[in-house]
Write a structure and sequence with these properties.
Blueprint lengths: L2 H27 L13 E3 L3 E8 L2 E6 L3 E7 L12 E4 L4 E3 L4 E4 L8 E9 L1 H10 L32
Antiparallel strand pairs: 1-6, 2-3, 3-4, 4-8, 5-7, 7-8
Length: 165
């Protein structure tokens, strides 16, 4: 190998190393903004799952033992999820995690699994907010109705000159 070829190989190695370090830095920081729960709670232990509620075709609330609730977001819409008889979670281990776990549901014609994009543990307040946002629960504070005209509630003006007599 000539000196020129060695130099080209070294430059390629440096560029590849630099590119990989940038990609690693981006992967480590993406998706962490606004998290109130640590990264370790992004997984659900599959045997602990007790039930689920469908918010829409790509969002679920999963209930686990210990009355914990998780917001599960799918990578794409699962048409027919609302009307399916049941869902199943699939992963290589007993932990259902973001980007590695999948959801399979009855009613999906080709039995294709849909990958999970995000799992986030919910506080009771966050669960209520999600249920209200997706129309599954009415807010506790009702807005006051717009005032309407009432028949017979006219205001009578008094004659200021009549008070002097």
């Amino acid at each position: 190998m000539t000196r020129f070829q060695k130099r080209q190989l070294t430059i390629k190695q440096i560029l590849i190393g630099f590119s990989l370090s940038i990609l690693t830095a981006c992967a480590a920081t993406s998706g962490d903004e606004g998290r109130s729960v640590s990264r370790g709670s992004d997984c659900i232990y599959e045997p602990s799952i007790r039930g689920y509620s469908v918010l829409d075709e790509s969002n679920l609330i999963v209930s686990t033992s210990g009355r914990r609730k998780y917001h599960v977001t799918l990578q794409r819409r699962a048409f027919g999820l609302r009307s399916s008889w049941g869902i199943a979670f699939r992963s290589q281990t007993n932990n259902i995690c973001s980007a590695f776990g999948e959801v399979i549901f009855d009613g999906h014609f080709d039995n294709e699994a849909i990958r999970i994009a995000d799992i986030r543990r919910l506080s009771p307040e966050e669960e209520d907010d999600l249920l209200i946002r997706y129309g599954k629960k009415k807010p506790e504070i009702e807005q006051t109705p717009v005032p309407q005209d009432v028949k017979g509630a006219e205001v009578e003006e008094l004659d200021p000159a009549a008070d002097d007599n």
